[in-house]
Specification:
Helix content is 48%, strand content 22%. The protein has helices at 29-38, 57-72, 84-93, 105-131; strands at 5-11, 14-20, 44-51, 77-80, 100-102. A 5-stranded mixed beta sheet has the order 1-2-3-4-5, sandwiched between helices. The longest helix is centred in the last third of the chain and has 27 residues, at 105-131. InterPro entries: STAS_dom (IPR002645), STAS_dom_sf (IPR036513). This is STAS domain-containing protein.
Length: 132
């Protein structure tokens, strides 16, 4: 068992969190706690899981709970760079349709940036339509 470590960076509308280590029953709640304290309300969250070789059902539960929390606050969760073992669990558990996954961190960041800009563009378009 490898205890996870976390690194966080903020961009406009996005909180990017890199995770390294296993996410399992003994430590998966650390990700939940870290995400709750580091993300900004309304931010989309990108989790770089390239350094997570193992994910168990407790880790999956935390990912689903983190996604639900983020969505309640107007954002969404984007997973990047999953290794084979975590993908196998997500597939077996039927979680793939629920979680947004990307092959690279850059793809996930682009998708989150696009999503974070979409509501702003819609608000501006609506305001513009009101002015006419």
């Amino acid at each position: 068992m490898t205890s996870p470590t976390f690194a966080c960076q903020h961009m406009p509308g996005i909180t990017a969190i890199s995770v390294a280590g296993d996410l399992e029953a003994a430590n998966a709640d650390q990700l939940d706690a870290f995400t709750r304290t580091r993300r900004r309300p309304g931010d989309h969250v990108v989790l770089d899981l390239s350094e997570v070789p193992f994910l168990d059902h407790s880790g999956l539960r935390v990912l689903l709970n983190v996604r639900a929390l983020i969505r309640r606050h107007g954002g969404d969760l984007y997973l990047a760079c999953l290794q084979q073992s975590p993908v196998r669990l997500l597939t077996t558990a039927g979680a793939l349709p629920t979680l947004t996954m990307h092959h690279s961190f850059e793809q996930a960041i682009r998708a989150a940036l696009q999503a974070s800009q979409t509501p702003q563009a819609k608000r501006e378009q609506f305001r513009g339509g009101d002015a006419e």
